[in-house]
Amino acid sequence: MTTPTIRVQAEDFDLAAETKILTQGRHDVGAVASFIGLCRGEGDTLNALELEHYPGMAQKQIGTAANAACARWPVDGLTVIHRYGKLYPGDQIVMVVATSRHRDAAFDAARFVMDYLKTDAPFWKKEHRKDGQEANWVDARDSDDAARKRWE
Amino acid sequence: MSTPIKLVYFAWLRERVGMGEEVAHLPDSLSTVADVLAWQQSRGEAYAHAFEHLPIIRVALDQTHAHHDEPLGTPAEIAFFPPMTGG
Q: What ipTM was estimated for this complex?
């Protein structure tokens, strides 16, 4: 089974470089599916997002989801990177890249990891607004729970 | 009193409790996760406020998610936090 690469870091990441690591030198990979989550400006009202995480457990939970994806689909490579700290509109927050022989496994594995990560990985977003109002913690969304449940 | 346990808090729970972590002696009578949450509510005004709405509070025992009805066991670290909003 494929061993996924998981990183939880403050630094930015480079999808192209991460993809190259999974594809270079091999001729058996036929599909690459990737996702990047960005910080939205919320109609130009957001100054910054503060991403808090539970060190150790964040890495562990993403690893659990990534390992489950590798067990469920014939994935050749899987890399997940999630950032923490202060992020600004347009900044990259999270990326998933999955490779496989055929497209279905790569698409499904990438989506599965994102859906599980949203509800199970210990990260919390706090919004700092441009109008100077008190910063507020983002509420969890029911639609995220629904997205996770469809994989059960 | 039992051995000391590290308690950690995140997001608005951390802000309401007023600290990110502490070491506490839990009463021996606590046997489930729900018992720990009820005990937290009894620890004064800040804790009562932080643990006001128990159903939405998530708990992890030694960095593993735990339901409220699960046995407490003997964890070294218990984490308390709101629903997660990463990704």
A: 0.95
